[in-house]
Amino acid sequence: MPKDTKTITEFRSYRLPEPFPVLLLTGEHWRISDVPSGRLHFHNCLEIGICHTDGGTLEFYGKPLAFKKGDITCIPKNVPHTTYSASGTASKWSYIFLEPKELFRGVLPSFWPNYDLEFSDSHEYLHVFPKADYPHLYTAIMHIIDELDQKKPGYQISSRGLLISLYIELYRIQYSEEARVQMVQNTSPIALHENALEISPALNFIEDNYMQNFTIMELADLCHWSQTHFRRVFHELIGVSPLEYVNHIRILKACRQLCNTETPILEISGNMGFRSLSSFNRNFFKVMQMSPREYRKLMIRADKKLENLSILESTGWMFPE
After folding, report:
1. What is the pTM of this model?
2. What's the CATH architecture for 8-175?
3. Which of 19, 132, 148, 285 is the most buried (most CB within 10 A)?
């Protein structure tokens, strides 16, 4: 019997700017191919999308969901999925990536139960919101896209207000007792890695505690696995070891401080959880291909907006598929 081919799962890491952690991807070139990519992907932040033309299929957990023109999509971080258009079409999209906990800091209470609109086993999650059923969501997201795209005076303040209104409405719909979604029988050639969902607690823990020192055993315990099994599955899904992934997250966070503060590099190194400056420098160069000092100087000199540098070429989504 031939050996089963494992599904490739790609991690797309987005580096969102402070103090306004929002990224808009829009324009005529943001069209999705009608050819399934053959791989799943997930990202490190919340994605809200809108389909402007045509239709196609969005797959979660190995099950296909149909989308069409005007539909809104909601994809929490760390959820493997893929998108492709209907045969013979190339659907046009706009995407908004955001970090709600940072964006709404001081607005929503610190004890807010689910900042990232994460998937919960307690109900069937709504990933696609048809325009016909949710016209108010369509109007809201189109207004937000216009604000972010036009960048008129005060657009960040206006966009933040519009985004929190959209976010609260998504939260109400997503977690109401009536929220249900009809999941169609799986006819997809893409199979979800059997452990893709079980590893989410470890990924979420790393995101919240990257600056702390913790062991592989602690991460493995969150997934109820042995260290050996955890290391193997983690590498299969993410493509790097748990330690490499933690250091990657730390470097992304360090980039923010280098760009937006005058904090000494040695202090930033300690804030990120590195035990020595040499370790920080070595890992920073591995990810960014330059030293922290060079990166800070580049950001100071650059006239470009940070949004234009917000996706890492090594892992982010630079162009539509």
Report:
1. 0.64
2. Sandwich (2.60)
3. 148
